[in-house]
Amino acid sequence: MARYELQRNLLKSNFIEFKKIKTDKMKGIQKPPIVKPYDPNSTIIELPSVSDEAVKHASIFDCIRDRRSTRFYSQDSLSLSELSYLLWATQGITATNKAGLTLRTVPCSGATHSFETYLFIQRVEGLQEGIYRYLPVEHKLLFMFELSEMDQKIDEITLEQPFVPNFAKKAAVVFAWSTTPYRSEWKYDISAHKKILIDVGHVCQNLYLASESVGAGACAIGIYDQKLIDEILELDGEEEFVLYLAAVGKKRN
Ligand SMILES: Cc1cc2nc3c(=O)[nH]c(=O)nc-3n(C[C@H](O)[C@H](O)[C@H](O)COP(=O)(O)O)c2cc1C
Is 241 exposed, middle or buried (0-12, 13-18, 19+ CB in 10 A)? Predict the structure, then answer.
């Protein structure tokens, strides 16, 4: 069908066309920042250093086997150590390569890591409710602002959910990953976009497995209001926009 054509083409490899293109990197244009800059006067929150102490299910086998999309949560909060671990598991930096690019707990095409992690925090011990951004280089949190009636806003953002209506607003934390496509386009030009979509899947899968390992559950969310969440997070919707969400909370017994 004609209306599928464009969308299906995005799924295919265009490496041969890409090889004919002179990318911005080849043109000698300066590499974009590897992470989004921030105002050093912002409120910055230290995160506990990451260790496997938070992990209850030590076995990766158990986590892979038991992982399910979890849409019912207890009222329990996540501890700050658990949140720290989930952030590290999804975007934590574990090394830097010779080109100065970050290597993280998730693979990423060309190590371009075009994502930022925003958090809608409702129940994390020691943190006030609000919108936060993860700073992966520092492994810290940046407090952005309070959001009144956050649960209602999450509900509006996540539209009509087909499996369990309104589940996301009851999560302890909703992760929202944005992409800044140019971080990848600079290097991969027309091949960047398929790679970005694949890359973000790895991030969310690590959230599922890491959540499982601390007795929490996650659920990916692809159904959301693009304009509304970009507006709430103060993203321009072109150079940076939300790509994927996931709700996390402690499992109900
Ligand atoms: C890209 C993607 C988007 C998804 N979006 C939603 C969503 O908006 N709402 C929801 O309840 N589940 C969503 N899910 C979860 C799937 O429904 C779930 O993975 C699927 O039903 C299989 O169940 P399981 O994860 O428990 O194995 C999404 C999963 C993926 C991978």
Answer: middle
